[in-house]
């Protein structure tokens, strides 16, 4: 029984869980800041054309550099941010330390990446701009959103049986 428990813990460590989750309790209205940031993020997605089905199709057809430049700049900002957080030991706004854990490569990441990429190419939407696409009037993307939710549920149901 101990080996099975250890295996589950090891599998759980591979998840992209939030190790920095705050233990502080906040009132319900403190979550409104996340709504505001989400709305602003959606506006930026629409204005930068990251939520544009046509731009996504151009990227997968290698017809335009627009999305590659957008994704590349996001990766660069993320790289620099993580570097600065580690170098200066930056803490959260509540003074809690930010921790980074190393992840090991496994073959499930290749399968998941392929499924994600195929879904992105077929639907013209990845999880980031789904809500922005729906909010901008492309209500047919609700089918993609429901499919993403169903896929997440199926993954969670079969998770222990999948290669990790």
Low-confidence stretches: none
Secondary-structure element string = HHHHHHH
- Output the structural class: mainly alpha
Largest sheet, in brief, is: none
Quaternary organization: single chain
Outline: globular
SS element count, helices: 7
Task: Write up what this structure looks like.
Pfam families: Sulf_transp (PF04143). By secondary structure, this protein is mainly α. 9% of the residues are buried. The protein starts with a helix and ends in a 6-residue tail after the last helix. It has seven helices and no strands.
List keywords for this structure.
164 residues, mainly alpha, 61% helix, transmembrane helix, Transporter, membrane
Task: Give the topology.
Blueprint: H1 2-13, H2 32-47, H3 53-60, H4 66-88, H5 107-123, H6 130-135, H7 141-158
In short:
The chain is mainly alpha-helical and 164 residues long.
């Amino acid at each position: 029984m101990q080996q099975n428990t250890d295996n589950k813990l090891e599998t759980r460590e591979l998840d992209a869980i939030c190790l920095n989750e705050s233990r502080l309790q906040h009132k319900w209205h403190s979550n409104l800041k996340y709504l505001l940031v989400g709305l602003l993020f959606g506006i930026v997605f629409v204005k930068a054309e990251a939520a544009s089905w046509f731009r996504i199709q151009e990227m997968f057809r290698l017809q335009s550099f627009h999305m590659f430049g957008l994704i590349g700049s996001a990766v660069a900002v993320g790289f620099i941010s993580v570097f600065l957080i580690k170098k200066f030991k930056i803490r959260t706004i509540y003074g809690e330390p930010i921790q980074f854990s190393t992840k090991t490569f496994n073959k499930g990441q290749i399968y998941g990446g392929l499924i994600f990429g195929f879904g992105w190419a077929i639907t013209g939407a990845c999880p980031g701009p789904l809500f922005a696409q729906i909010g901008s009037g492309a209500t047919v993307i609700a089918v993609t959103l429901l499919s993403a939710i169903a896929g997440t549920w199926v993954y969670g149901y079969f998770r222990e049986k999948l290669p990790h």
